[in-house]
Input
Amino acid sequence: MTASATRLGWWPAMACLVAGIALRDCVVMAAAGPLGLWAFYAGMDRSAPVDAFRAALRCALAGVASILAAIVLGTAVLAAVHGLWQPSHERLFAGAGVLAVSIVTLGLRFRGEDTAESCWKQAAVGGVALAAGGAGAAIAWNLEWSACALPLATAVLMALAGWRLLREVASELLLAGHER
Output
């Protein structure tokens, strides 16, 4: 990862979130999740020589935050389906493009790492979920809630990524710190 890419930090995720809220587009809001995870991993790489306990604590907190963000995103989508708020579906293809770029950015983050196998499995599950959501949206295009399939698939991806951070990465870091 280049130094200029890691300097971006949380700005892309915050920009997607603010743009999604301003546009009332839950697909663009969903793109903030994978970009936020990317920013977390980039930040962990920048401050890599920290002790294992602090790294485990940061991973656990990021995992909990990712799971909570997935719950909030899923709740927002379900509220839209039940008519509690009306998202805009005018720019669905543009939003889906932003979402795809954010997921590919997160997936590319793990290229060439030792943990790439489990990360790529997780990305594959997320990709299949997004493809299924996209296919469901294409099949049910006339239904009002069809655009919500992509944010729901992203919420599943974020929950899986958060669970992995919380359960696997934080635990491994704690064990590594204990062995020293």
